Give the backbone structure.
Amino acid sequence: MRRPVDTGDPDRLYTVTGGRSRAEDSFDLVTLVVSEREPTAGMQSEHVRILELCRHPTALVEIAADLRLPITVVRILLGDLLATGSITARHPRAAPSVASLPESALLQEVLHGLRNL
Amino acid sequence: MGSATSELPSRRTPLPDAAETGLKIVVVGGFGVGKTTLVRSVSEIRPLNTEEVMTQAGVGVDEANGVASKTTTTVAFDFGRISLSERMVLYLFGAPGQERFWFLWDRLFSGTLGAVVLVDTRRVDDSWYAIDRLQDHNTPFVVAVNRFDEDPFRYSLDEIRQALALPGHVPLIDCDARVRSSGKDVLITLVDHLYELAMAQEMTP
């Protein structure tokens, strides 16, 4: 039986990603994304929205919240845009693994920022 | 007339163009303990909500059939934002602490600076699993006791430390998640703790 495209979330996600499920793992939740070009005619609407949103640095989670799309789907979309040079990504420089600590200089900066709130 | 629910993405203050480093802190705790309240009290933006779709191992979304079947779980989480400087921005994530949600934690929160375990003294049991798991992961954390007005027992911090079997080196503090300065103190306590750990590690040859 044929399903209407717009009713179920899984179908919508399938459409948005063109059926792909492998996300670009290099994008962290707090990777800051910056547009490097304006949207062009014929671009997929989600790509257009990301490029508009990221005229200022925007974290992946904020993009996901604004587009109302799951994190994984946004990672796939960002992967597309990165591949065409349409965005650049500023990845976090905090400890790459859960078990290793960030450097004390970074933490001092964080403390300074928090105390000044 | 303005509506609180119609905030457009563009109305949110964007990060400065110099922003280059995103940082993460996770707030874990049971339902109703005040995670979102804490995030809201310190965040510079109204907390946002997003979700992750978890797909069971081995079943991708390669076919329409796979997508439509019940092999995916959606887990929603809240987050807030604190700009620390022109270059650094801290994101605060509220994550459910129950056992069945820890796959989300594992997937999403690797690379986090540290965690705040928010405790409700009326339901201390809810915190055991979270504390256990954080220790397993070697993720540094502090425990903050959210004191509700109607808290009838007023256990002392010592009593709570005992009840949680919390080692002496883990900071344990009182807080009121509704109050911005109190939430800020919780974050400072965590980062202070992280700083001490980092200094100790850097001193070790």
User: Anything to note?
Assistant: The beta strands of chain B are 21-29, 48-55, 72-83, 88-96, 114-119, 141-146, 172-175. The CA atoms of residues 116 and 137 of chain B lie 14 Å apart. The first helix of chain B runs from residue 35 to 42. The domain at 19-203 of chain B is CATH 3.40.50.300 (Rossmann fold).
